[in-house]
Amino acid sequence: MGQLFIDGIKSFAGSTGLARIFAATSSSAFAVNGIDAGVIIMICIACVLLYLAIVKQFEPLLLLPIAFGMLLTNLPGAGVFHAEFFTGEDAIKNGLDFGKILHDGGLLDLLYLGVKLGIYPPLIFLGIGAMTDFSPLIANPKSLLLGAAAQLGVFTAFLGALLLGFTIPEAMSIGIIGGADGPTAIFVTKTLAAHLLPAIAIAAYSYMALIPIIQPPIMKAFTTKKERSIKMEQLRPVSKTEKILFPIVVTIIVALFVPDAVSLVGTLMLGNLFKETGVADRLSKTAQNELMNIITIFLGVTVGATATADMFLRPQTLFIIVLGLVAFAFSTFGGIMLGKLMCKLTGGKINPLIGSAGVSAVPMAARVSQTVGQKENPTNYLLMHAMGPNVAGVIGSAVAAGVFLSLAKLFI
Predict the structure, then answer these.
(1) Are 192 and 170 in contact (CB under 8 A)?
(2) Which residues contact 71 (CB under 8 A, 6 or more apart)?
């Protein structure tokens, strides 16, 4: 009886997470003197991200669940997520084994199906559409060009990734970081390069949170004090009819030219239609609040759960982080340069600063334009003018994603 008790204690001790950390086999890629260094490093990274989300409040609504998902998946022995169900050799060769996932999978495995099947990003876009006012874009259609110019970083990062040896589908996934749109980056990556999802998602959301730090130096470097001080005329009023027709027309146009972008653009415009018609207030409020919050939790935790040591601690991750920064910088640069050109063509009526808001981070990028402009001229109010390129950037990044998804079919 005593021996049985002792054996039970030994068995329990050997099954603890602490024992697993200090019992790494030599076959483990991160084993150091019998210690699983990979687990320790990933737990530390998760704690740093939790600190940034909670204390520094860097994009906390998404960074917090992503960081905690990363913590959960790297706790030794917890078994809350099985990456091999989705990215293992069997999954790649034969497709998802839904029977095995339902029978042997944990909660996060089941929730991750929403990412793998492309369900969560369009639902996020539904909520974004219900919260977005397209009036500034409708009142000033030229701002659509600024949103397009700010996609320069997407194609710059794409080319940079190719030069660094990434495959074309991988480079396309990395390039989308430049759109400053987390859901779009996830939507493209889960289809083209699922093994890069942890690094790309974390890079995208981290840089989105750092926009107030990344953009101002670039904006000041490529504009003059005189340009930053330009006051723009008040936008014209937009009728309700225009607001209702806009999402319908945009959806039709996108479907005709880039059908692969419809799942994102279509849900974005549907959410906006809920808001603008005034006949579906309950649906609009649900999309903005309950649905958006639920999907954000599911998306963040499950994307974070993919960030295991084997998937995240690679040289590729460092390349992706650097390329993400380059992409954001070039996207800001592209919007600013077109803004300067439009300023000259209109005789100084357009403040180039609003071009930097062409990235998709709504409304953060527009607020940065407002802040930088007001520092030069306290009476300058650029926020609503910057919202035009900002919401155009959301459409632009979704269209860029559709183009990549369409072209990727030639290489997969």
Answers:
(1) yes
(2) 43, 46, 47, 50, 304
